[in-house]
Amino acid sequence: MIDITQEIIKALHENAIDAGVITLFTPHTTAAITINENADPDVTNDMLFGLSKLIPNDPHYKHAEGNSDAHLKSSLIGVSETLIVEAGQLLLGTWQGVYFCEFDGPRKRRVNICLNER
User: Fold this and answer.
1) Contact 96, 38 (CB under 8 A)
2) Is 42 exposed, middle or buried (0-12, 13-18, 19+ CB in 10 A)?
3) Alpha-carbon span 44 to 114, nearest angstrom
4) Structural domains of the chain, ranges and CATH numbers in brackets
5) Which residues have C-beta within 8 Å of that of residue 27, sequence separation ≥ 6?
6) CA dist., res. 19 & res. 3, Å (int)
């Protein structure tokens, strides 16, 4: 899980968005985007541990590439998030950050950022 909050804030400031909505989308079937606590790194470790227990890499999956668990985790977490912008700031909670989740890597990945000004 990679904290991408600062990259989003940078895009927000570079485009001088004062108020609106940001949509994030990753076009990968084994990756995801989520919002969660970014103050304690144990939270992301616990999330990854929990996801691995919930959806283990099981040899009984039929997908020939061997990464069915990554596809399931991506679908469970989701490939997009929507963020609100007010007064030039992301409206995140005190402890929240935005994470790119890589479930089948490392690989070259991208996150599309769509800025919609109000």
Assistant:
1) yes
2) exposed
3) 25
4) 2-117 (2.60.120.460)
5) 79, 110, 112
6) 23
Tallying the residues shown for the chain, one arrives at 118
Tokens 């030039």 label which residue?
A: 88
Contacts of 97 (CB under 8 A, 6+ apart): 3, 5, 35, 36, 37, 38
Cis peptide before 41 (omega within 30 of 0): no
Q: What pTM was computed for the model?
A: 0.93
* Six token digits for residue 86: 């007010």
pLDDT in tens, the chain (118 residues): 999 999 999 999 999 999 999 999 999 999 999 999 999 999 999 999 999 999 999 889 999 888 999 999 999 999 999 999 999 999 999 999 999 999 998 999 999 999 988 8
Q: Which amino acid is at 89?
A: Q
